[in-house]
Amino acid sequence: MRDPLVLDQAHGADWSIYNADCVTFAQAMPDASVDLSVFSPPFSNLYVYSESAADHGNCVTDEEFFDHYRFLVRELYRVTRPGRLCAIHVKDLVYYQNSSADGSAGLRAFSDGCTRVHLEEGFTFHCRITIHRDPVLERAKANPHGLLWKTFQGDASFCRVGMPEYLMVYRRWARPGEKALVKPVLHPKAEVPLERWQDLAGPVWRTDDASVALTYGDPRRAVGSLVWNLQDPGRGDGDLPATDVLNVEVARDPDAERHLCPMPLNITKRAIELWTNPGEVVFSPYTGIGSEGVAALSMGRKFIGTELHPTYYGQACHFLDEASRQVAYGSLFDLLAAE
Amino acid sequence: MGDAYVDMLARKAVTAPQRGLDTVPPLPSSLSDLQRDVTAFLLQSGCGAGFLDTGLGKTRIQLAWARVVAEVTGLPVLGFVPLAVGPQHVREAEAAGIQDVRVVRCQDDIRPGVNLTNYERMHLFSPDALGGVFLDESSILKSFSGVTTRKLMQFSAALNWRAAFTATPAPNDHTELGQHSQFLGVMDSNEMLSRWFVADQKQMGRYRLKKHGVRPFWSWVASWARCASRPSDLGYSDAGYEMPDLVMHDLLVRVDTSTDAGQDRDGQLRLLRIPGTSSTALHAEKRRTAEARARAIAEPVMDLRAEPWNVWCDTDYEADALMAAIPDAVEVRGSMSPEMKEERLEAFSRGDIRVLVTKPRIAGFGLNWQHVAHAAFVGCSYSYEQFYQAVRRNWRFGQKRPVNVYLAYAETEAAPREALRRKSGEHESMKAAMADAMQRAADHRTIKHSYAPTVRPELPVWLRGAGAGDCRHA
What we know:
heterodimer; A: alpha/beta; ten-stranded mixed sheet; 12 strands; B: alpha/beta; Rossmann fold; seven-stranded parallel sheet; 15 strands; about 40% helix; globular; nucleotide-binding (chain B); helicase activity (chain B); Helicase (chain B); ATP-binding (chain B)
């Protein structure tokens, strides 16, 4: 075993985060110590966050990314409690004509590549949740050839549909001799009514992209209306606001290529609600500015995370500290209300 | 397992392979320390580039390099040079005491040692009996068609010894750097682009270096090239390499914008012409103002009658206007035969012609005209690279007088002038990043910065896990 050193660390009562390479750190974590991993991996070479070779986003090809990612997945399998899950937030990636050798353009099945690596390292494929994204807003943001009205008129064979995101979920089954480690996740009827379960069971989670235009507000905004709210394309639709993310403005690194991609809080919260019991351990190897940690703490879970980038790590410390204090106030109010 | 991860991280750092000599034989004593260093580096790498600004001794380096390669391989070496540059090289070889250097016109002329020919004659040669190949002023590849460049790549692909020499690349000039790395067999230009560049959506998909890419990119370049715009970039003294001043004179040509004003989208006649920034609009505007700009240039050219002048244009109609306005001007035009071009360029080098009118893409590369301290551009194009290269014909080490550059442009052509100013600033900052990387390469530091943690982590008490047993996937 390598010397499991880190660059920095910070702890609260219910959280610990490390400024470290997630692979070397995960190698030092105990077996079966995590109840749910939920995170958004770097989307291959889409964004480069730092110059470090240890940065998973610092790669040239998808192949190189998966070579690197595999080392993490191997540890994820080991540290996940038997019978529990690992949920990753990903999407497929486009490639353009001017960067392809043969002049073609299209999609790279990045989400399927992730599945392949998880299966090869021992997980099973549990389910795929599609997160709806409004194609009209995608067109407005990125102007992709395949989504242009002009393309549709000129040669619709180039037209594609909008790019959704996915929550890909993988399960680590208990092997012989591990049955004792299995702990069911329980949802008593009194706490979660049938209607809520039917909502959570939907294969497509619709997010409200229209709020992209809003300035980033309260980072811990409550989950939006649970009622399906279908509207005309271009106005966004759904029950999950797309901008339900931690305040990204404060964490911007002037040298980072474009911006960081925080994992939406509402998607994270749904995963945590579905697949963990209160008090259990949630792990994110790519903590970023701490989104998964804030979601976990706000729901009474414990959180452990790693982040390589010192600026993001610093912001994560700040957000987690604040989140744990909010939770403490919250329970104080609950206590007063109970009296 | 741990070691496998370390190996994987190490694979992510990229450097060019060293495919040349382990020990470099003694080099001619006429070489300076800098020239000796660069020559030795290129001989060790086998396939490498010398990005050296004019006056640092590219010619001597390439001749010394070629001489050693010819000796090591026992085969002749062929060098491609721009038009009219060959004789200049032979004179330089004599001065440096380098033997067996000659200009050749076809395969049958080739003799042991170093052979020089024009790029235009590539089709008359075959790589079969050669030990190595080198390119002088390889930037010129950009002014040839893609076919020429591809043929040159094919020509050289089988040769183990390749070298390319040109001035330090223009900022963010991925075409040039990619062409060089591909020519040298270091990395495909497509791979280079996807590794360190990003297609900037704000700039119509034009590639630019990723911000985090700047350092690692230049570190990688330093593994197969030596770049210097002055000796101190490679750790040597700048004494004796002081550059004279470059004085820019903007000749702003007033134009009558009340003619050809056209009409707006609704068919309403316009009072004044509003020139667009599209290339179509720009060309129309340039054609309209060509004569006025030529007259503006002719004035100083005729005033300073005792001075030799380089007058640069971008189009034939500009050349026609200049020839009409300057009585003793001689033109070198694209449609002329290579022999005629060469003869006139040589005559200008000797001082037999006072005013030379030509285009940067014809004579902007490789020629040394330090005897000329006055240059004029009859127009301002968007190509900073061509402008820079053309100015460098006169403004180079060895130039004793300040160089005066006259730039004529109509007031309706302010956009390209502004672009030129901006690109010149970008060039400077890119040169700084490049020089920085060369220093790091000289310091033998590692290419990608490594992960060096020092703090022992404390795991939270609640992270107990199963404790016993190995949970690894079988």
